[in-house]
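Researcher: Structure for this, please.
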Amino acid sequence: MTTHLPGTPDLPEADPPPAEPPAGWPTGDLPLSRSDLQRFRTELATVAPDRTSAEMLLGELGVPPRRLPSFHSTSEHAWFEVFRALEAGIVAQPCRRLLAAALARYPANGVFRDLHDRFLAGRPGDPAPSMTGAGRTSPPPPLPPPASPASPAPTAPPPHAPTVFLAHDGEEQSKVRALAELLTAAGFTPWVGSEMVTGGSRRDLVVRRAVLDCDFFVPCLSARVLGRPSQLHREIRIALDRADELPDHVVFIVPARLDECDLPADLQEYQWVDLFAAGGIDQLLRALRASTPSARNSRSGPSGR
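Model: Predicted structure, token format:
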């Protein structure tokens, strides 16, 4: 069949994309076509547009943080690099496991549900469809994906979990929410600012009390936020006043950089962690776990010995 354009010769129609996975894709994985892979990749770039949220998803597959791209460019390009690494076989059945992890985080996402229903429903491991009427098959009901055996589902923190105040600007809300999920899964209670203030409350008083009462203060810093007025600066000043009242050996302020930026002068004496770098989340968790209230109480003096 040809396409007729006025004033031009007949041109053959473009061939449709192949229905099979690209050559070289790990065997035994979901049989996603090139267009399905691109659709999956684009949706992942939408729901996980930064390194923190991507590390949260890919960590459930066992992808080493050092294999993640920097996310300094666009999220689409970063996820393209992620899929290149997956195609190289760094983990087994990458699409099947990544789809399960994505559905566990975003169960209402239409793209993830469609891929599940098309490639997983009715296959081994999924319940058989039920029969309705004379030989007609009803589609299987939506099912939550199986949890990865290597990464148990996050559980609620214990009643006395250490509280972590995540000071941030509204422009970084998506990154901070992803960080809050990781902290909750690790046994901490994150405090994420305006989301914790109920209607009718005096916001400044509530935030000030939260900073003074928390176990850790983690200012989430980025170049675009530090260069302009923000509530973040006020919260940092409150935390610095609180830190002045604590013994020298107590870790209270742990700056967290979301990108390459210069710390404010008042914070430069504190060792920071880079959440955009490989292993940044692990560095933050190590700092918090080594300085929990129980660990502090076991120390006998300012030196920590």
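Researcher: Any notable elements?
Model: The first strand starts at residue 2 and ends at 3. The chain has two domains: 32-124, 163-295.
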